[in-house]
Model the fold of this input.
Amino acid sequence: MCPIDGKVERRSVMNLKVEEQRAEPRVAVQFQAMVSGSVESEGTGIILDLSRNGCRLESPLLMLPGLSLELRIAVPGLEWALMVDGADVQWADEDRAGLSFVRIRETERQRLSHVMTTLLARKSEDGDKEQVKLVPFEFQGLEAVLSKDPKLAISKGLGWFAQDRAEFPFRGGSLLNRTFPTCTPELVAALGELVKVGSDREADFSLALLQNYLGSTSIDGVLKEIVSRFSHDDRIMGGVRTIINSPSMASVSGEFRLAEAWRVKKESLTRWLTDERQAVRAFAEEHIAELDRMIVAERRRVEVERELRERSRHEDESGHDDGYRAKPF
Done:
């Protein structure tokens, strides 16, 4: 048997064993995700299937069994990314890994449960068929061409988006993410011009593409352009908030890391207050206040959980909740 066939066979056997261990139903998806906590700190990935207890992740990051990762999963229709505080790597094979959700706050668990209910209902309507989404043949070889011309890339991407918005993140959007791993100034400028002269379709396309760069401040110019033109469109503004509320966690640590990441994002929004456009300034003021509330609530949540852990530890050590410790014989 050739080495390639051997890898395929080992992966098939491994995946079969994992399938047998799953107690929760899963659904094949392709959701963009920000990944923190790997050997290489932070990067991006794609969730390939999802359940209430875990997922399968594809990412160029180095993922080793035993690592605990943090995930921010961009789920279409959610106002901000789904947060998983602890996803332990159960197995890893080349660029894919099986993750088990071991730490997820109750509010996020409820959001995940709602997402799964929706996905499972849709899967049932589709005849319970797994959907495999691959990069179309006609996309192959385009990366090298498009990387040299952001305007051409955006023009092509808009065409793919118009053909099928639901499939765009997994096909054209995925291709553009590989073509532009970071949001370059040239790409930002081209998207900004597109939003200036375009309709809500161009805004929707830009927001779909910006999902590839969650947590990056390089995209602020495009977001401000969208806010300036569509400040009265609740749907589009919801997309802007989704991206802003998915901050970078690479440079923060500790129990309050999410609150700290939101604080950093709030500081970056203060620069919007000097924008010459009134709509941008008004949005920044409103969302800074919203981030303040989110930060306070997150810090309070962490403090309550810490207090509960301390109380539980004390009870475990004493054996009684009144602090009584039995004397040794």
Observations:
- Residues 137-304 form one domain.
